[in-house]
Structures are given as structure tokens and as C-alpha cells.
Amino acid sequence: MAFPLGRVTAAAVIAVLTVAGCSRDPGEAPAEPGTLRATAAIDFDLPDAQRYHRTATYPVHLNKPAADPVDAETVAEISTVTPDGNTVIYTDAAGKRVGFLDLRDPADPVGLGTLSLSELGHADDQPTSVATVGEYVMVVVDTTGGNFATPSGRVDVVRVADRTRVHSIDLGGQPDSIAVAPDGSFAAIAIENQRDEEFTPPGGDEGDLPQPPSGFVQLLDLTGAPQTWTPRRVDFDVDAARAAGLDTPDDLEPEYVSVNARGQVAVTLQENNGIAIIDGRSGDVQKIFSAGTKSVTGIDTAEDGRIDQTGSITDIPREPDAIGWIDDTHVASANEGDWKGGTRGWSVFDTGTGEVVWDAGNSIEQLAVRTGLHNESRSEAKGPEPEGLAITEIGGRPVALVASERSNFVAVYDVNDPAAPQFRQILPTTPGPEGILPIPARGLVVVSSETDDAESGVRAAVNVYGFGDRYAGSSVFPSLVSGDVDGTPIGWGALGALAADPADENRLYTATDVAYGPARILGIDLTQTPALIDTEVPVTDDGRPVALDVEGVAARPGGGFVLAVEGEDGPGNELVFVNTDGAVERRVSLPPDVASGLGGQGLEGVAVDGDAVWVALQREVKTDPAGVARLGRYNPAADTWEWFGYPLESTGVDGDWIGLSEIQVHDGALLVLERDKLNGPDARVKAIYRVAMPDRAAETGTLPVLPKTLARNLLPDLQTGRGYTQEKVEGFAVAGNGRLYVVTDNDGLDDANGETVFLDLGPAADALQGA
């Protein structure tokens, strides 16, 4: 039976369906066509002079000792900088060392090697924090070695110039963070004496408090030579903590410290859900108060594969982690949570009254969704989990930097009015950003990340950003965002395809793959900056949303779409024809002899050429020659297939492979996207190749292999953002406006940093060689 490819119009897909992105139940029937398109809720388009620019991303495994295996875990958690602003020093708890990084050129950090703590103490010693004072770096070391009942720690004072320890100071407990007073007169160190999460106290559950001994704060006077520096212990009054409403006041756990110009120390008591203010000069505890609870609506609280922002949390303790002084009477806290709480945001407190003057509510999570950084695997836990926080200045105005540990970004806010912070910008990071180090004298911010996954090639790194025109030059993030419907952003991520709209020259289509279900076709408005996802059409079968691993999408000129769906095995691969409302009209499986020769990597691209449909298979069919993938031409009217071979590039890297990720028809030829499985500094093959359009396949059983020519090397394009080079460049299209666009698949943040790169490479006639 003939199956016409039809014609699609822009008006037909204005149906903004809210299956996964908005407030209604994901299982409801689709909305009626004609709903208004989503609109941009945040202006991300800042001038270069008013924004941070990423200048470099330095993977810290490059700074490990040469004798260490390349895949050995190494991280960067907390960092500090020498007084001249040129040498960054970071903690590497996994490697039990501290690292040194030359930052004289922010665009080209240079590793200066590491200092192993085993050389200064025991092999089990772990650094928890670092801070510089004059020519020295104070390395805070946890020497507990897993013996939670008898916690211990020290501060090693190391001369930076020759990395010689000149003094060591016993802390009397297990330390966490350190902060130096702005005038350099003293340092405050949080002695957490952290709980054992596998221990069950009498009458409690596993990991509960109390687990003595209680924590405290050490104040370290820094006058004179290091050998004369003396600690002063500050204990908290249990009755005062109880009166303030803190949880388990007889076992307080200080987490993070910050010192203001008055010499006041703000301390978070995370598991106890409290904040304390100490006079750093006298050692008096001036105030202790509860961080309170928060109810948050419009968030995703179910780990079900859907971006479903209809969940809520009620009366949850904030349990703040990092803290910073905005001014002398206001502090900001990142409410990560550790024991019973975590409210997915950050707050501002009046330190005089202990009252909350502002709270982020669901805005951090909405920011993650809006920029494609939603981490579905954390939905039932603490969502984006803000952990790190620092305060700096831009043009004399205080600015808060808030790090999302699970969604891999830093949000930037103007906090000149502490009661009304204003969002400015989002900075993408490598996974697990924790330490935020402003270097205001140079207009820099350094973010260290603590997640290292050598197996997937996503390594911990030091991320560097510079403010203003002098640091401009990298591509801007975000380059793609979603609009809001009824105050809720359209959920998106894991984009494995791009397609032009036949009727609107400034419009593209893309689709979410299996990382976020159910399958949806998203419309992109190219006239907006950044480009705006403003429509979503759920794919439905018999009226119900359906989960599909969509790896290719093509708009049919006569109406509707063709989807390339990758199966878990060969027979699961199919072409799915849907109408303009996303309803499945026809499914077409691959021929049995082809499907049986595929593993878990099959259909990866689809394109429409007149009455024909072209597809790309990512990897070789088992019966075909090694290094040859397949391109297929399907005739919907006759229900027939023709197959052609495509010669893949080669790789000699262990664990790597080369495959296809997209196919398009342009100027009478086939354009094919080919990539390797590598990312970061290891990435080598990310390119578009041109293949002459074949007339017909050979009638014999021999697979004709088509010659290819390079049309564009995409690797330099992917590196313009100066971030961690993405592995999965999986979609490209030439829009009706004649420009070439490329998108990466962020894998839903699974074994990836989550950053989506959406590139406008200019007119295809200029961007493609031989065009």
C-alpha cells in the first residue's frame, strides 16, 4: 500500500503538549492543537562585557604523578590561590594529595604537579580543605582513617615555593573546611567529627545522630611565624542549640565556615540544620539559629524516566552546606542536605534575627530543566543538590555563585539586595562541582569538580571562567534553552537528532531519546538567542504516550515525521511514521537479515528525500566487512529497502569505536555524521562526510561501498566552548535559512557532564567543504 510522505506546516505543530515538561499528569491525553507556543522566561543573552566566559577546563588526571595509572581516580574538590592570583592549589582526596596549577594564563592552565600526604603523614590521610596565607598554604588533613569514634586531624603548613612542610598543628578532631579572615589575622576550621553512616546509635536507625564526639570550631591565630600559630577551640552550648530548635543538639557537626570583614565566623551545622555566628577574635558564640524548613512545589520527585515537574516536598529541613557572607548582616547558604533534609535551593539569612529573607524555592531545579541539565537519577533524592557557594564582587556589587553538584552548573546571582537576588547567568561545569574560588583581582572564578569516571572518559577538572570582554572568545552557554508553559519550562535533554522544518526556514525539530520518556518531538525557534525549544509533541500509540529511543527525526514534507528508533537489540530497530500530532501511523522494521546482524547499536539517523527515506546504522552489521557501516534507502510506497556500505574511520584506542550518528540529504548528496566514542582531550573523530547520492544498489549480494569526502571536521567547533569536549555529537541539519546547525546528546547526565552544545556554524555553503 502506498504511504505518502505528505506535507507538514509550522502551524500544525504549534500544539504545545505538556506530557513531560509542564504541570499536568504525564498520562493525560494530548492537548488540542492550537495551544500557544512556550515563551522564554529568562533572558540569557548578556553582552560579553557583562558575563563570565569559560576560558579553560583542565582535567586534573593530567596533573597526577607519572607513575599513577591513567585511569586511577583523581579529583579536585576545594581550591585556593596564592596571593598573586597565579597558582591554584586544590585538594584531591581520592589521590590523597594536593595539586598545584599555574594559572598565569587563564586560557592555558599548566599542571605543576602534586604533593602527596603520605610524604607528610600516613597513607590514609586525606585533605579536606586548603587556604593560603602569605607564602604558605594550610592543608587541612583528616587523619581519622575511618575510626569515627576517635576522630583526628591536623593542619600542615606548607611553604608554596618549595612545598616543604614547616609546621603541623593538631586539631583535636576530624576537620572539614577552613576559611581565613579577610585581614589574614586568623583562620577558622570546622571540626565536624562526622557521623558514620553505617553505624546505628541506640534507639535510632543506621546513620542517625547522636554519634559522639560532638564537633566544634578551631580558631587559628596567624600572627608571627607558623611555629607560633596557636589554635583556640570554640565549643557550642548544647542548651542554646536546643533552644534554637536544632536537631540533635548534643552532637553538632560543623560543616562549612566563612569569615566577614568584622571577623565574624559563619558556621553551618548541616545535619543539625543550624547556623552559628562566632566572634573570631574573642571566640564567643554570638548567635545560633535554625535554618528552618521549606516546602517546595513544581519539582520532579519521582525517578521514573520522566521530567515530571508536578511533585513537591513539605517541611523539609534545609540542612545547609556551604555558606558565605553577602554583607556584614546577611549570609547565603547552599541547602544541599545530608541526613534528613535538602531543599534543592539556596537561602539568604539575616544573621541578627536568624530569619530567612529569601529562598530560591524551585528556581534552581527549573534552571536545570530549562537548560537541559535535569538529572533524572536524582529526582527521588535531592534533585540538583546545591552544595557549593561563594560570594564575590562584580563592579562593586556582591554576587553569589551557587554550584549544583548533581546537575553540573554554577548559577550566578546579583545579591546587591539580599532580599531579592537577581539571576544573571549559568556556567556549565564538569561533574560534581564543589569548590568555588573567586579571584576578584583578576576577574576570575575557578570551580573544582569532584566526580571522576575514567571508564566513561568523564574526568574531574578545574574549570576556569573570566568576567568581561577581555576573556570573551569562547562559545556561549546556554546555546539552547526551553520556554515556559504556565510558568513551567519544557523538559528536555538527550537530543540525538536534528531536522529542518520544510515550511519554516527558521525552525528545526529534535527529539528526546530513551533517557527521558515518553518520546517527544521538540520544536526549536532559531530566531531567539539562545535558540528556544518552544513546542513539544509527545509520540502516542493508541492515544497513549510511548517510550521510544528516538535517534533520528525527519519532517515529512506532506505532514508528520519519520522517526529512527534504536532498539535494545537488532529486531527492535524500526522506522516510526507519526502524524503532526505525534500519533503513530506506521511502524517499519528492518529486514530480518539486517536486524539479526545488529547488536545494541542500530538506527541512528533518518532523512527524507522526495519519496524515499534514508537511514544510517551506527555500527557494522555482523555479516558485513569490518569497518563498514550501512546506509539504507527505504521506499515507503513499495515497502522495499536498498543498502550501501559506508567506510568508517579507524581507531587504535582501547575501548573506542567509530560509528555513524546522523544522515541528511543536502544539495543532491548525502551528508553523514561520523564520530568516535571518546571525549575530553582524547576526542579525535567528530566529522561530517559527504557521499554522492547513489542511483541504486547492486542487485548481487555484494554490499557496494560508497566513497566519502570530508565536508567538515567538527572537533574544533566542539572545542570553541573551552569545556570538556563532548562525545556524542549526534545531530545536524541545514535549516531552511541555509545555515548549518549541530547538536550534542548529553545522555541525560548519565556518564556525561550533561552540557548540550548547540552550534550555528553559519551558511552551509561556507561551512561545508565542497559545497
UniProtKB/TrEMBL annotation:
Q: Which residues form the Choice-of-anchor I domain?
A: 70-313, 341-423
The record's annotation in InterPro entries points to:
Choice_anch_I, Mesenchyme-surface_protein, Phytase-like_dom, Quino_amine_DH_bsu, WD40/YVTN_repeat-like_dom_sf
Q: SUPFAM superfamilies from the entry?
A: Calcium-dependent phosphotriesterase, YVTN repeat-like/Quinoprotein amine dehydrogenase
Gene3D superfamilies the record matches: YVTN repeat-like/Quinoprotein amine dehydrogenase
Source organism, top-level taxon = Bacteria
Domain Phytase-like intervals: 491-747
PANTHER family given in the database record: MESENCHYME-SPECIFIC CELL SURFACE GLYCOPROTEIN (PTHR46928:SF1)
Question: Which protein are we looking at?
Answer: LPXTG-motif cell wall anchor domain-containing protein [Cellulomonas fimi ATCC 484]
Q: Which organism is it from?
A: Mycolicibacterium parafortuitum
Origin organism lineage: Bacteria, Bacillati, Actinomycetota, Actinomycetes, Mycobacteriales
